[in-house]
Amino acid sequence: MGAEPQECVPEKPVARHRVNWRQWAPLTLLTLAVLVGAALWFAGLPGAADLVWSAVTLVALLPATWAVLRQLWHRQFGVDVIAVLALAGSLLVREFLAGAVIAVMVATGRALESYAQRRATRDLRALLERAPRQARRRTPDGRIEVVPLDRIAAGDRLVVGPGDVVPVDGTVQDAATLDESVVTGESQLVTRGAGEQVASGVVNAGAGFGLRATKNAAESTYAGIVRLAEEATARKAPMVRLADRYAAWFVPFTLVLAGLAWLVSGQFIRAVAVLVVATPCPLLLATPIAIVSGLSRVARRGVLVRDGGSLELLGRARTLMMDKTGTLTAGRPRAAETVVAPGGDRDEVLRLAASVEQLSPHVLAAALVRQAREQGLPLAEPTEVTEEPGRGVTGRVDGRLVRVGQLAGEPPEWAGRVRERAELAGRSTVWVSDERAPLGAILLEDPVRPDARRTVRRLREAGLNRLVMVTGDRPRTAEQVAQAVGVDDVLAQCSPQEKVARVKEESGRAVTVMVGDGVNDAPALAEAHVGVAMGATGATASADVADAVLTVDRLDRLADAVEIARYARRIAVQSATVGMGLAVIAMVVAAAGGLPPVAGAFLQEGIDVVVILNALRALGGGLRGPDVPPATRELLDRYAGEHGGVREVLTRLRDAADLVATHPDAPECVPALREVHRRLTDEVLPHEAAEERQLYPALAGPLGSDEATSTMSRGHVEIKRLVDRIGGHLAQNPDGRLRPDEIPDLLAALYGLDAVMRLHLAQEEEDYFSLSPAEGRPGDGR
């Protein structure tokens, strides 16, 4: 079709940055009035000045009194009552300037608190403004039509134009360049290849591309986040007022001290002076600033927290409970290994399986297709495809009948060994068969997130002293993951009801955080003090009930959120404590007659400045994670991308080792060894040498010293030694035959190299590559 008419272009949200002058107007007018009064006083008109100041005091007193009465009607009691008494007392003793200064302080507190509320939900409102209303859908006859978003269904073929917001979760049909910053907090553009999953809400930063919807709009990732935003923006006061907690002791203490000062001295003005310096502006000003700073910072890190109360609870948490699948693991299966029948071709088995599975919506099918495409295998279009739920898919590929799924009948001996091997490793098995017999098996795993262990360490450093993994998976698999990430306890084969019971039990001992991503985690998230949903995976049910949502699919952002929450809460409490401590000292001096009301009012303003400046410290600091320069991140991305090729060589290495172990006299044995050695020499060793020259020196700064990479350098030395050892055996056999006496040492070198390299790759991905925010790392399930 030709160019679309203008009305068919989906509307793009326009960012609006407006200053709400109405909320700042009371503070502005009161301040101007106080200055006018000061001008009249200096002009020799004290009566007129007192009249203006008294009017300012009265203007502040009336709404403050009404607010306190409403609080008392709802059985709420806060420190605002002190401000009301101070304003009223100033009028009674005719200290009009003191009353006017208090009025300005109260107005400043309300204005800043209102600003803090708006700022706390600004990131959430930005999400609401960007929500798409319609989408381009391709019709069966090839036309493109613009339809409302609620008419999009799973399976629809969409077109996402340049600058458009991706409307629903889907699979990219063409390579796409995306800006995911609004949803994930990452500023760098991300490239997604054909077949990769894309979450709704991200922005197309490149040319238009095709998208096949995998969910409708209501079930997509962005919809859950938008519902969170709507709820958060509708809530009253998105932050906790620590001042009200101090009211339980501070208000009675203030009233008793003011009463004693009046009773002992007989001067009511002393009681007013005590009330003036007791005005709780340090709490009304500094606490919201610190809390909103924390809310804003975690939002920029890709964590949306509903309100300040949730942030404060997150900062006080001591126990963390985590689901396994999708939280500590990638949540997406990965084809870890392909095992073939004796004499079979691994690539051909994977190609046949992926070709048949191209039309299946099953998550395991997506893993097979993704693996085949990553290896560059040419997929054929299947015919006569039928799918039997729970058993698998059958179809014809190049005229050949192929069955992918469960194994029918009695397995041959080699297949029995594969089944045992998969069971021991905690992997799922997908069998590939033809009309006669099984051709091979593809072992699938849900890999541990590369950043999981580092994140667990950071969470411990942040003050979480009990970390528990709860999962519905088998005990063997759960124990393997728990050992890999280093949690304290494992609860396996838990039903949703059992998860809720365990969360309730832990919550009775300490402030507890629960992290999950699935629908079955939603009840447990609601039960915890703070429920955190891995919202980037599209689990909208868990996001709807959570107190916080990770909009980026990175577990380390949870550690960032905990560290920022603790820091912001510490600053808020510190500001409140210092401010109230100074106020108490001033109250004692005022009670003794050493501080008149006017001087006390200005002293209180000075205390406000001190605590506000201290509260502004919450805008930065608190994060323990290393700061990685952009150039180092580029190196991390480059070498992380090369790990896929290294793992493919490792697969060939294991095949060659198995061939030497089982059929050392086979004519293909030595040629297979020579090919593996060539690839180790031409591909793997140059990769390791380049890391040694470029990557490891660049990591010295972020990691603190050159010693941080010394053990990994020792791994490079061992890898080179084992490769040379294999090459030495091959050099001694120019005739292409292995001597029986050298087979044990050759096998030790082959299997040893396999183990050393797998451990080395895992350590690099955990300790180094997880420092970079880029997604799609080796081992993350993509």
TrEMBL record:
<dbReference type="GO" id="GO:0005886">
    <property type="term" value="C:plasma membrane"/>
</dbReference>
<dbReference type="GO" id="GO:0005524">
    <property type="term" value="F:ATP binding"/>
</dbReference>
<dbReference type="InterPro" id="IPR023298">
    <property type="entry name" value="ATPase_P-typ_TM_dom_sf"/>
</dbReference>
<keyword id="KW-0067">ATP-binding</keyword>
<dbReference type="InterPro" id="IPR051014">
    <property type="entry name" value="Cation_Transport_ATPase_IB"/>
</dbReference>
<keyword id="KW-1003">Cell membrane</keyword>
<keyword id="KW-0812">Transmembrane</keyword>
<dbReference type="Pfam" id="PF00122">
    <property type="entry name" value="E1-E2_ATPase"/>
</dbReference>
<feature type="transmembrane region" description="Helical">
    <location>
        <begin position="24"/>
        <end position="44"/>
    </location>
</feature>
<dbReference type="InterPro" id="IPR008250">
    <property type="entry name" value="ATPase_P-typ_transduc_dom_A_sf"/>
</dbReference>
<feature type="transmembrane region" description="Helical">
    <location>
        <begin position="51"/>
        <end position="69"/>
    </location>
</feature>
<dbReference type="InterPro" id="IPR044492">
    <property type="entry name" value="P_typ_ATPase_HD_dom"/>
</dbReference>
<dbReference type="InterPro" id="IPR012312">
    <property type="entry name" value="Hemerythrin-like"/>
</dbReference>
<keyword id="KW-0547">Nucleotide-binding</keyword>
<feature type="transmembrane region" description="Helical">
    <location>
        <begin position="271"/>
        <end position="292"/>
    </location>
</feature>
<keyword id="KW-0472">Membrane</keyword>
<comment type="similarity">
    <text>Belongs to the cation transport ATPase (P-type) (TC 3.A.3) family. Type IB subfamily.</text>
</comment>
<keyword id="KW-0479">Metal-binding</keyword>
<dbReference type="Pfam" id="PF00702">
    <property type="entry name" value="Hydrolase"/>
</dbReference>
<feature type="domain" description="Hemerythrin-like">
    <location>
        <begin position="637"/>
        <end position="770"/>
    </location>
</feature>
<dbReference type="InterPro" id="IPR036412">
    <property type="entry name" value="HAD-like_sf"/>
</dbReference>
<feature type="domain" description="P-type ATPase A">
    <location>
        <begin position="131"/>
        <end position="230"/>
    </location>
</feature>
<feature type="transmembrane region" description="Helical">
    <location>
        <begin position="576"/>
        <end position="595"/>
    </location>
</feature>
<dbReference type="GO" id="GO:0016887">
    <property type="term" value="F:ATP hydrolysis activity"/>
</dbReference>
<dbReference type="InterPro" id="IPR027256">
    <property type="entry name" value="P-typ_ATPase_IB"/>
</dbReference>
<keyword id="KW-1133">Transmembrane helix</keyword>
<dbReference type="GO" id="GO:0015086">
    <property type="term" value="F:cadmium ion transmembrane transporter activity"/>
</dbReference>
<dbReference type="InterPro" id="IPR023299">
    <property type="entry name" value="ATPase_P-typ_cyto_dom_N"/>
</dbReference>
<dbReference type="InterPro" id="IPR059000">
    <property type="entry name" value="ATPase_P-type_domA"/>
</dbReference>
<protein>
    <submittedName>
        <fullName>Heavy metal translocating P-type ATPase</fullName>
    </submittedName>
</protein>
<dbReference type="InterPro" id="IPR018303">
    <property type="entry name" value="ATPase_P-typ_P_site"/>
</dbReference>
<feature type="transmembrane region" description="Helical">
    <location>
        <begin position="81"/>
        <end position="109"/>
    </location>
</feature>
<dbReference type="Pfam" id="PF01814">
    <property type="entry name" value="Hemerythrin"/>
</dbReference>
<dbReference type="InterPro" id="IPR001757">
    <property type="entry name" value="P_typ_ATPase"/>
</dbReference>
<feature type="transmembrane region" description="Helical">
    <location>
        <begin position="246"/>
        <end position="265"/>
    </location>
</feature>
<dbReference type="GO" id="GO:0019829">
    <property type="term" value="F:ATPase-coupled monoatomic cation transmembrane transporter activity"/>
</dbReference>
<keyword id="KW-1278">Translocase</keyword>
<dbReference type="InterPro" id="IPR023214">
    <property type="entry name" value="HAD_sf"/>
</dbReference>
<dbReference type="GO" id="GO:0046872">
    <property type="term" value="F:metal ion binding"/>
</dbReference>
